[in-house]
Input
Amino acid sequence: MASKIENIEKPIDILDDGKAPPIAEKSGFLPIETNWFDRLFISVVIWVAMSLLWFRFVEPMGLSIWISNVIALTLATFIIAKG
Amino acid sequence: MKSNTFGWILLAPTIVVLFFFGVLPFLYVVYVSFHQWNPFAANPNMIYNAAGNFRQIVFDSAFLASLGVTVAFVFFAVLTEVVVGYVLAQAFMSDFPGKAFFRTIHTLPLIIAPIIVGSIWKLMTTPSIGIIPHLLQSSVGFDLNIGQSAAAAFIITITMDIWHWTPLVTLTLIAALVSLPPDPFEQAQIDGAGKWQIFWHITLPMIAPAVMATVFIRLMDALRIVDEVLMLTGGGPGSATRYIGVHIFREVFPRTNYGYGSAISVVVLYLTIVVCWLLYTGMLAPRKPRKG
Output
């Protein structure tokens, strides 16, 4: 069995052609290493959570959901840029 | 041919199939979730509702109650499955008489369709004819009736899920345990580490990715449980086992409220993704080195 394994040629790594740029990991204020897509994902998650909580607790007091959207957009810009 | 291009050619059929059967239906559900749509109502057309369905969801007490019991169900079911699955995997790692037989027997629930699992457990738990109420009555004098007791129905649905899906956890953890290199364990034993220390400091960190993958699979499955529960309890008694999948089913099919049902589905998908992401971030994601 061991000799069979040794005879197998080196498998082709289809994702590594030696030219693909590495994904840029960034070190911002978030406690984990993130790339731009991670930070976009975190922003969308926060936006949806904020919207649902706004609908439940803040909108009945008369404040429009657009205020939440503006806050979420500002926060998203900050997270993507500095996160 | 560049290896990268070759890779994309190999991936192309999967991407095309995923796009048509995964991405497009998902986008359609998101689209429908922003509409009022009941094809059997006086106006069968889709009416744009903006975020109206989502506004309704956060005040829907039936939805919130259903979310609560679903979270409890998922927590107890998945936790028990992982613990029992690990114990069984460790048991199957050692040799004992009849090991192959028991391993086959314990895997059998996996190949049974969920609706059949529901009907089997319905037969086993029906008072007067079921084996479980009979045994409980004759051994400890407990009168099990899942049609009347909310707690009993809840516990029986969890037990059914554990019975059905623990073998999957066992199989994945066996695969993880088999692939572990022996060297760290030998070194730990030479250094005098106890069984608990070996488990906590060597086994668990090494199988953590497999455990997390299993937890994700089970978490997503448990969150969308419908057919087994619908068959066993129908979501009752009252709303004791009206899990989120059952709630969506009742909203979409008997009431044909497609828009609102889609909105609930989108919220549940959001919650599933967030929970999985938080688990991944908490357990596996690379952390920044601490300063100072």
Remarks:
- Confidence is low (pLDDT under 50) at residues 1-5 of chain A.
